Amino acid sequence: VFYSSIMANSCRKLIFNIYIVFYCSAVIMPQICICSQFTSSPIDQFNKDPKAFPVATNGEMFPWHELRLPTVVIPLHYDLLIHPNLTSLDFVASEKIEVLVRDATQFIILHSKDLEILNASLQSEEDVRYKKPGENLTVLSYPAHQQIALLVPEKLRAHLRYSVAIDFQAKLADGFEGFYKSTYRTLGGETRTIAVTDFEPTEARMAFPCFDEPLFKANFSIKIRRESRHIALSNMPKVKTIELEGGLLEDHFETTVRMSTYLVAYIVCDFTSVSGTASSGVKVSIYASPDKWSQTHYALEASLKLLDFYENYFDIHYPLPKLGRFKFIIVFIFRTCFDFIRLYM
Fold first, then answer.
1. Which class is 271-345 in CATH?
2. Per-residue pLDDT tens digits for 241-271
3. Residue 49: CA atoms inside 13 Å, Cβ hemisphere, count?
4. Contacts of 195 (CB under 8 A, 6+ apart)
5. What cellular component terms from Gene Ontology apply here (predicted)?
6. Domain residue spans of the chain
7. What is the CATH topology of the domain spanning 42-270?
8. Which one is predicted more confidently, 44 or 119?
9. Within its chain, how far is the Cα of 284 from the centroid?
């Protein structure tokens, strides 16, 4: 019996060792190989085998072939200016992205979907300091991966910051993703249009060129141009409103906390609101179309209680100075819970 037990243990060890060998060969080694592909710079990969890379819409070689963005350039801050036209149902916009270059590169890869890029330029820290004009960049597009490549004239140096400026335009989307148009009907039968965002999980790229992956967190400063009959809302409280020519107004919002692109939100509408303050000092507002304003008070009362509940439950103070929701309270219940979690991921 003792001999049989020894033989059984030996067989078990042999089988276990064989399993470990196969596991390492099938699972661990491929991952090591995959990781090793990213230890070399994107430029080295492109120069080594340019034929392995896809072709951009203009016929040139697109310098990146992965679905995920390279991490040699990371965003630090976005400065967005958006001007939607609720009559023509399109929008024009511009952005400046402050980026940090972690490794020398000659291109920057961003996400962009259904956006028309008008022009792009680059400024170094020195250019920004001395207010020098930016260098124009060549823009390549690869729609299959919803990516664009900004080709720089000279290689970007590691550990330096640069500012990327992009002008672009697009139609307001027809569905419920990205920056899209929505409508509602008044009691008098009039159909009105509003412009709304919904970027989760990867649709911020439909509203502005960006590093549209949760890994790439940054701060966002948002400005929205609108007509006087509309209001503009965003993640943060409004700082000021500037009057422009042609009767337009430009709302400036506070800079957000550091967060992923899919948490960015803004809307242009003619809604009215009711507001209150939670016990922690956070301003809570409920927005609805003018005909539905009378239905917002119960939603506000419930929202204030829910915010207090979640702060106590998670033992986390809500990190933003305000919380705005639309009329349907069921949306607030789930979204508030997720906001607590996602802002800290």
1. alpha beta
2. 999 999 999 999 999 999 999 999 999 999 9
3. 6
4. 84, 86, 91, 172, 179, 180, 181, 182, 267, 268, 269
5. cytoplasm; extracellular space; membrane
6. 2-37, 42-270, 271-345
7. Immunoglobulin-like (2.60.40)
8. 119
9. 24
